[in-house]
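User: Please predict structures.

Assistant: First:
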Amino acid sequence: MNVRNIIEQREEKFIIPAGAKSKDSLGRQSFEELDEVRTCYMVDRDRIIHCKSFRRLKRKTQVYIKTWNDHYRTRLTHTLEVAQVGRTIGRGLGLNEDLIEAIALGHDIGHVAFAHSGEEVLNEILPNGFSHNENSIRVLTKLENNGTGLNLSKEVLDGILFHSGFSSTEQKSHTLEGQVVKYSDKIAYVNHDIDDSLRAKILFMEDIPRNILEVLGDTHGRRIDTLVRDCIKQTNSNIEEGKLQVGLSKKIDESFKELRNFMFKEVYNGKLLRNERDKAKFILEQLFKYFYNHQDKLPEFYRNISINEGKHQGVADYLSGMSDEYCISIFKDIFIP
C-alpha cells in the first residue's frame, strides 16, 4: 500500500461528510497519474509554493507601499497568515486542511504591484476590466511554468476564484474549504492592517469605535481568537442544520463588518494612502502606455501573448507579475535620465 492510500484512508475517518476528500476530487484539466506519497491537494500546495509567482509575493506590498520596516506585512506574509487562520478553522470543522492550505497559498498570486492601487489601474485600462482573483487563475493555469500552467485540481482553482468579496449575495466556493479561505482572508487582513496602521501611526486604538472592541476584543490576538472561535461554532451549527455554509454569528458578523467598513473609511481610502496610491497609479499608467506603444520592448514571453491575445493582455500580464520594487526600477530605467 502506498503512502497516499494511507492518507486517503485517514481522510475518510477525520474529514466530515461535507468536506472535500482527496479521492473524490473532480481532477485536473489534464490527466496525471496520482502521486504515490501525496494526495492531489498536497501536490497542488507544493506546486504553488515552489512557483515563481509565489516567490514574487514577498516584494508585493499589502497596504503600505515601499515600507522601510521589516515588520509591515507584504502580500507573502499576508498569504501565510491566511493559510494559518484557515487551517485552524478547517481543523475545528473537520475539513481538508491540505485543500485549505493550497487555496490560501494561491489566493493572491495574481495581485498587482502597489497593493489594490495596481488592480484599480488595470481595471480602468483593460476593456474587460481586471480582478486579482481572476488573474490568479490566469497565472496558475496559463502563465506559470513557461505558459503551460500548474495543472491544479479543480477544487483549488474554484476556491481561489471565489475567495474575494464579503457580500452574502456573491457566489461562493463550491467547497466548504474554499469558503473557509474567504473568511480567513478577511479575518487576517482586517486585523493585520490594524496592526500595521498602528505601527505607522496613522491609526490609534482610541480611533476604533469602542463598541466594536467590546465585542471582538481590544488586542490583535483577542480579535482573531474571537473571530476564529465564532466561525467554527457558527459553521458547525450551520452544518448540523443542513446548511453547507461557512459564516459568523449575527452579533460577531455585524461587528466585524463594522470594523471592516471603518478600516476602508479611515485607512484604505484615507488621505495618506490616497496620496501614495496616486503616485503608484501614475507609475503603472505610464508603464502601461509605454509598453502598449512599444511592444518590441516586452520580454519575449509577454510579447508572444501580446501578438496572440492582444496588446492589452500582454502588457497586463507583464505588469501584473511585477513586484513593487521591480516596477519602480523599470519606471526609472525608462523615464528617469
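Second:
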Amino acid sequence: MRIAKRVARRAAIAGAIVAAWALPPAGATAQTTYNMASMADFTGPYADVMKDIIGSRRPIVDWWNAEVGQKLGIKIAFKDYDHRYDAAQVASLWPGIKAELNPVLVLGLGGPDVAALQGRLPGDKIPMIMSTAGYGFAWKPDPWIFNPRPTYSHEAVAFYNWFREKRGGSGPLKVAIISSEASPAYIDQQKGIEKYAKDNPDKLEVVESVFTEVQPTDLTTQISRVLRKGAEVVSIQTNTAAVVAAKRAMQALGKSVPILMSSHNGMFDSGRAMGDIKQMEGDYEVYAMAVPTDEKTPARTFFDMLTSKHGMKAQWSVTTIQGMGQVLVALRAVEATAKRVGADKVTGEAIRETMLSTPIASDQIFGTFSDLKFTKEAPFPVAGLAAGIGTIKDGKYTAAARNAPVPMLNKW
C-alpha cells in the first residue's frame, strides 16, 4: 500500500511538472502562427541575385517575431519556393503551396508571379506583396497584388527626365532599349517606355527596341547599330547577362554610352558579373527605393542591426534593400491588421483591406521606400513617389540623385 501511495505521489508530481512546462510563462501571450509563401528563383535567370533578396527576408522576420509579433501574440513563418522565374512553374506550384501552407500572404518575386496569379488571388483571397516595380499588364483596379514601387517604365522615365535635364538642351533624349520576349515583364517595360515617348516626343525618343534571347552572350551588332542611330542611353531592365553582354560590346567597339539598369540587375550584381564594379563607371541604376551608399541612413542602421543581432548574411546592396523593403511592408501590414481586427483574426482578406486603407510611413519601413498609400486605382501608389539613382564615379558607388520625381504615365 505504501509503495502504491509513493508511486501515485510521484506520478502526481511528474504530472504537475509537465503541466507547468505546458503553460506559458507568467505575463506571456499565446501566439497564433500565420504562414507566408516566399517565391524565389534559385535555378533561373535571377539565381545570381537570390542570395541577397532571399537572405534579407529571414533576419527581418526573426526580428519582427521577437520585437513586434511576440507582443501582439503573432508569429510569422514562411517557406521558399523555387519557380525558376517561369509563369508555368508558378501556376503548377500554386495549388500545392496553398494546400501546404494555407498562407495569408505571398512574397512575390517578379513578372511570372504576377502573370500566373493575378487572376487567381482574388478568388483565393490571398494578397501578394512584391519587391519589384509594377507592370502595365497588372495595372488594374481593385488589386490583390501590391507593389511598393511604380512600374519599371515609371522608374526609367524618372531617370530619363533627370538625365535629360542634367544633359541640357531642348531636344528629346535618345534611348535604345535592350529587351526580350521571354518574359511578360520584359515586354511590358519596353511598351511603357515607348508609350511615354509617343506621348512626349519633345522629351524622349526611342531609337530602337532590340529583342534578344533572355540571357544574351553577344550584343556587339545590336549595340553598334543603336549607337549609330544616336542613342545617348542604353536602357536594360532585364537581367545581369544582358548588361554584361552590352558592356562587353561597348568595350569591343571602343564606345562609352551610359547603360541604365534597374534594382535586380544593377551596379553591384552586374559589376560582380563583370568581375569588378569599377567597370560600371558612368553607368546608372534607377529604382523607387533607398540608395545603398555607406552613409548612415535609417535603412543602413537597420541593416547593421540585423547583421549584428539576427544573422543577416546578405551584402549591403540594392537587391538587399529590395528584399528588406518587401518584407517590412508585409509585416507592417500584418501588424496593422492584427491591431485592427485582433491577433487571432488575421486573414488574407483582412490584410488586403488594411493595405487599401492604412498608409505605411517611410520611417515604419526604415526608409527603404517612400511613404506608401495604396488605393483601389492601381497595385502601386499612383502619386507621391520618388526614385533613387545610383552610379559609379571615380570607381566608387554613389548616389547621383535621391529624390528624382516619378512622373505620371498614361496606361499602356
